[in-house]
Amino acid sequence: ATISTKVIAKINAGKRAPTQAHHTATHLMHAVLRSVLGKHVAQKGSLVNEEYLRFDFSHFAKVTDEEITKVEALVNEKIRENIPVVIKEMKKDDATATGAMALFGEKYGDVVRVVEIDPNYSIELCGGTHVGSTGELGIFKIKQESAIGAGVRRIEAVSGKAAEDLINEQFDLIRGIRDILKHPKDIGKAIENLVLENGELKKNIEKYETQNIATIKNALLQKVETIGGINFIGSIVNVSNAETLKKICFSLKNDLKDYVIVLATAIDGKPNVAIMLDEAVATSKNWEAPKIIKEHITPLIKGGGGGQITLATAGGQDSTRLNEVIEKVKSLL
Ligand SMILES: [Zn+2]
Fold first, then answer.
1. Which residues contact 155 (CB under 8 A, 6 or more apart)?
2. How far, in Å, is the centroid of ligand 1 from the Cα of 11?
3. Which domains does the chain carry?
4. How far is the CA of 154 from the centre of ligand 1 (A)?
5. What is the pLDDT along the chain (333 residues), one digit of tens a residue?
6. 230-236 and 259-267 strand pairing
């Protein structure tokens, strides 16, 4: 069938220029990778668009930070040399004789298109779109290196305006961090100090928490009530997080037998409750801590919870009835 409609093909220059830059940068990087990493580097896949370039190649180790820096530096050197990109058509055998790189497994015709960027540096068989000379790339920057399979690495990189954008993004990020840190002279040192200080504070908090748990535990042991042969502790305690409630329960465990423990606290106005049953009590009374929580506690604190047969916790919205929570559990004994 024939189509009689006229069509006009137009090149989208806004996409074309950055795509050309990324494609040409791929040629340069390919040649540089072979000189930095070795001649075993062969293209396994390539994607080029206006935003970035992605290049997959054979190599059996991670490309180190030093190698990345070296590859960037060499590509940028070739950019600054402003080497003309020369495109020739020649017989396939003549092209092969120049040492032009071809894609393994790719079928070529008798006449091939050869793209030359410095004949001593990069000659490839290629039908793609390129810049006129390497200076048009402006700058080249690798964003990421990763493994995509056994012996295949992937590099994502940018050139031209996309590289400028990436560099600006990074500078903005550092500026933002510097603002947050109130403009220290040495930003790296400032962050290192913060991390150290944070570690010290955490250690201190843990130390005080351990002391606090011991103090609360000793006070609670003074308040054990024996009801029907069960040692009951029910109390509102002052702790800063729900995890500590559990820790207090566990610390009491070693000093008691046949126990039922219910501890309640309000953290930032929100109620938290922990119930722990001695295994012997759970068995003889056929009690389960999560069941007690669900049936008797969560309605009072307007919340939810759960756990194991011998230990369950709950959180909720209403912290005004914590005394009732304790009385309720006591009344079950
Ligand atoms: Zn090309």
1. 29, 33, 54, 55, 57, 63, 142, 144, 145
2. 18
3. 13-180 (3.30.980.10), 218-332 (3.10.310.40)
4. 18
5. 777 888 899 989 889 999 999 999 999 999 999 999 999 999 999 999 999 999 999 999 999 999 999 999 999 999 999 999 999 999 988 988 888 888 766 788 889 999 999 988 999 999 899 999 999 999 999 999 999 999 999 999 999 999 999 999 999 999 999 999 999 999 999 999 999 999 999 999 989 989 999 999 999 999 999 998 999 999 999 998 889 999 999 999 889 999 999 999 999 999 999 999 999 999 999 999 999 999 999 999 999 999 999 999 999 999 999 999 999 999 998
6. parallel
